Amino acid sequence: MRKLTTFVAAAALLGAGSAAFADDTKIGVLMDITGPIANFIPPLQNAANLAVKQVNDQGGLLGGTAVAVYGDTTGTAQGAVDAAQKLVNIENVPIVMGSLMSGTTIAAAEAAIIPAGVAQISPTATSPAMTDLQDDGLVFRIVPSDNYQGEILAKMVLADGLDKVALTYVNNDYGVGIGQTFQAAYEAAGGTITASNKHEEKKDSYRSELASLAKGEPQALVVIAYAGDSGGKIVRQAIEGGLFTKFVGTDGLRDELLIENVGADALKTSFFSSPTSPAENPAQKTLHDAFNAEYGEGADKAFVDQTYDATFLALLAIEKAGSTDRAAMAQALRDVAMAPGEKVGPGEWAKAVALLKEGKDIDYDGASGNAEFDANGDVGGYIGKFVVDGDGYKQVEIVE
To answer: Any idea which UniProt keywords this protein has (predicted)?
Structure first.
């Protein structure tokens, strides 16, 4: 943790206006550092920092030093807008990596990043609402939409022998996106939702909602929310009340914080879906080896692969553009991420720069897979099924 803190502090200092050197090139990193997913953040900061460090160790960005300038959304829409406005209007970053939560990503994009003409690439925002954003082609993500995850989750639940479940999802872009898609796909495939509830965040008690959800003899409770907020409280209160013993969650609930709060034994029959990386992907091993060599551990944490890839792609886009011209970033991002081109993987910065200087096309294939963007900046991808394993999670299935 000391290494992370030192690097982030140094990056913030270097990126702070007059303190920056003339040959620094900034990249905006927008993260939900505090708020409901704070427990996810330290390894994701390490992932972004590793990408920047590798660039600087291999010659730098545009011939100078790459600097990550962080903005904390605080996990709220207004916090996201404030942080994004600082990045694009004060720090004058040419591209933004982030944010992570769907709600903060959309809020930052609509209120600050798109109006400034800045390209934005999120490693983790999954809301279907992002597909139809009026974004002038500026907003990208490298995880599949919740429309896809909801459908896959429905198949997972039925394949687990669960044909009667109760459902609760948080009333935000993330929860509504997966919750409604899951319900439609599950019922269309023959499953029965015994009760469904759209709940609000930041309540102290969900016991009355849980009492209603427990009626009708559901085999499990599907919870689509964040472990650091309503999701964790709902699972804990359901267990305390003896109302449910089996839970199905999505990536927001696949958080070590949930295990810490309720215990691994209470979750031994539960499972969770989450965007993941392709099986037998050598690029993932390359990243994980480099990550663990630098930080000691943590490469297997949720969304490390996606955060690293999104950061590395943003840096490649700047190098491809040959300048910090904001107007060139969106096309440059497509150019470095998509076929055709010579393959470049995690950590291969010097190779990528050499190819670009020779006028050759490159195609980055990352630890989380390749990023073949469609017209809306969306990608396909992979969804994993995870179970609790000790104090962490183990992947037991991948769906492409």
So the answer is: Amino-acid transport, Signal, Transport
